[in-house]
Amino acid sequence: MCGNTDEEDTTDSGYSSKFGPPIAYDPTFRGPVKSRNCTDVFCCILFVICVASMIGVSVFGFIHGDPRRLLYPTDSKGNICGYGEFVDRPKLVFFDLLTCSKMGRDVESLGCPTPQVCVKECPTENYVYLESAQEEKANRNKILQKERERLICKYGVDRMTRNIQDLVSQGLCTAYYVKSISVAHRCIPAVFKSNSMYDVLQSGNSTVKLMSKDGDKITPNALAEATRYLIEFHKFQEYGEMIFSDIKNSWLLIVVCFLIAVLISLVWVILLRCIAAVLVWVTLIAFFALLGFVIYYTFNTYVELKNSGKENDFGLTPAFAGNFEYYLGLEQTWLAAGIICSVIFVVCLLLLIFVAKKLCLAIELIKEASRASTAMIFTFIWPFVPFLLEAGILFYWITSAIYLATMGRPETYRNVVNISHGMKNLSRIHCNNHNGKFVEDMCDFVHYGDSKYAVAFEVFLLFMVFWLISFVTALNQMVLSGAFATYYWSYNKKMDIPTFPILASFGRAIRYHLGSLAFGSLIVAIVKFIRVILEFISYKLRNSHNKVARFMLKCFSCCFWCLENFLKFLNKNAYIQIAIHGKSFCVAAKKAFALIMRNPLNTVIMDKVTDLILFLSKLMVTAAVGEYSSSLIFIFIFMS
After folding, report:
1. N or C: which end of the chain has fewer CB atoms below 10 A?
2. Which molecular function term from Gene Ontology is one that the record holds (predicted)?
3. In a 3-state reduction of DSSP, which class is residue 119?
4. Rounded CA gap, 90 and 83, in Å?
């Protein structure tokens, strides 16, 4: 019986003696060992200090930060729209979006160099100030209140007595605006929401000819160029609204399907105990059959689209295609999907042929794991604990990051026009302010910054998130390892297994091995952090022409990705050794590495093949729940 086998190291043929001799059989060994000492105490102290520092940083951010600055837009004078004096004006309007394009990518850091004011609602029509001027001229220069109310002006401007031309030329009121939508409370042209307005402006059939205060014609392409940095933001908001709406409308169905998935998973585990071999082969056959059907469907769709000659682009360029229908109408999409699925099919088939003889060992392992899981029913409940811990860590990080990002002082800039070779170049320079009051009327608020500590605090907080997430993963692995080790070395399963093996293993991990968990997770967190730094540098150099530097960055990123995955694999086996023997992290990692190197083939089979089979089992459960949910949706629609 697998469950009654004492600790014994059986090696693959041809193993090297430099990894040490096999572990001798000890009939008296009973794991996990009960006599333990605290391990890696220094790392435990360091972990506690860092967590306390993280809490201190968050408290500092909570005291000095204001999330309203990030969640709501701010006008050119630093007023938060929709709050305080401007509680009835939650939207932000840009006077002249064309000036945004003159800044290029600097607009992301220096802001759009045009006045911005808070308004009640975004414009619902296309308007140019010449329209009102001509209307008043036709009425013998009589001021028309209806026309003046259409103007969008700076705060405190008397638009009822002054000449319209003067209001616009002096920059007190906007020369034009277009029908807009609200994106994160900011008004942007509705061309990004609907293609109809774009077509009207492009064709020239609109009764309103948009012009700037300098008399330049406003084209839809110019608007697109001026606001192209808002396109991606709008897409994210649209997707977010769709996701939120779907969850709101189908939360009951989601809960029902979740419970069904739990029930099917439990039944699947019980079936694995009884007919593991049959289920494993059925799972593999079903996987290859499903993948084969997907390959047929993708290539068949590709051929149909190619023969039809239909270009289903919906009148949009890829930059403006905000839905998946655009890509589903491209024959290249289906060709790429078919090729990828074919490669996956061939690779999986070759892997199956290579490890076919070892599948029996994997099946026996799955049977024993099924027996252990049903013998310790709390193993089905425990996964919710690390899930909730990780969700709490992510929520804590997002909240703290928002406060830290908004604890700086207002930074203001003013526009400067430089003339070079007869060309006017627009730039912005930093201007001083005192106690939050702008010394010049031409100074515009851009963002909150100039904090000595904000960037350092956010970097430290990001590193701590990596460390804490890795720590929770390590804790989960050690707790489960200790519980299953208790089952493995229990000769009498009914008498020797404690009532709550999960809690007993959790207690051992927290009491004795907190430092070892911190040590292993710290190593993984450091590698993760280095990968983030490399990705950040790569992002900054995305427009660089130095191909050698970009290639080296890609190589480094690949190497650190491999290192991270190797460390995760080694750490998992080290935690198993710690859970059984109670050794420190370095000693356990050394023993785990030597054991793996003495049994490389068996390690691959026991780890990767079983992972593959369990992954396929998850796919089958997911497919079953998906089929059931589609049936429920059909029933709901039919009854409606």
Report:
1. C
2. transmembrane transporter activity
3. strand
4. 8
Scanning 162-230, the segments in alpha helix (DSSP H) are: 164-169, 195-203, 220-226
Q: Fill in the amino acid letter for 276.
A: A
Q: How far is 50 from 255, CA to CA, in rounded Å?
A: 38
DSSP H stretches of helix in 193-230: 195-203, 220-226
Please state, in angstroms and rounded to a whole number, the distance separating the CA atoms of residues 602 and 9.
11
pLDDT value of residue 384 = 86
What span, in angstroms and rounded, lies between the C-alpha atoms of 223 and 423? 22
Cis peptide leading into residue 90 (ω within 30°): no
Three-state secondary-structure class, residue 276: helix
Q: What is the dihedral of CA 275, 278, 282, 283, to 10 degrees?
A: 50
Residue 607 corresponds to which tokens in the numbers above? 């780890």
> What are the Cα distances from residue 450, in Å, to 25, 432, 436, 444, 519?
65, 12, 13, 16, 36
Overall size of the chain counted in residues = 640
Q: Could you give the dihedral angle defined by the CA atoms of residues 126, 130, 136 and 141, in that order, rounded to the nearest 10 degrees? A: 160
What is the rounded distance in angstroms from the CA atom of residue 334 to the CA atom of residue 243? 25
480, 538 in Cβ contact below 8 A? no
The maximal CA–CA distance of the chain, rounded, in angstroms, is: 110
Tokens 């609907």 sit at which residue?
A: 194
Amino acid at 537: I
Helix (H) or strand (E) holding 434: strand 433-434
User: 67: which residues sit within 8 A by CB, 6+ positions away?
Assistant: 402, 403, 406
Q: What is the pLDDT of residues 36-66, one digit of tens each?
A: 899 999 999 999 999 999 999 999 989 888 7
Residue 413 bridge partners (DSSP): 430, 444
Q: Distance (Å, rounded) from C-alpha 312 to C-alpha 316?
A: 10
Joined tokens for residue 90:
């939650």
Between CA 376 and CA 528 the distance in angstroms is 34
* CA–centroid distance for 639 within its chain: 38
The contacts of residue 543 (CB under 8 Å, 6+ apart) are none
Strand pairing category for 116-119 and 433-434 = unpaired
**Sequence-distant (≥ 6) Cβ neighbours of residue 287 within 8 angstroms:** 348, 616, 619
CB-CB neighbours of 290 under 10 Å: 14
H or E element that contains 255: helix 231-308
Q: pLDDT for 519-555, tens place per residue?
A: 999 999 999 999 999 998 888 887 777 788 888 888 9
Tokens of 189: 């042209």
Give the Cα separation of 519 and 504 in Å (integer).
Answer: 22
pLDDT at 480 over 80: yes
Structure tokens at 302: 């590709």
3-state secondary structure of 485: helix
Contacts with 110 (C-beta within 8 Å, 6 or more apart), sequence order: 103, 413, 428, 446
3-state secondary structure of 370: helix
pLDDT at 500 over 60: yes
SS3 call for 240? helix
Place of tokens 């320079």: 429
Cα 529 to chain center, whole Å? 16
Backbone phi, psi, residue 162, to 5°: -90, 160
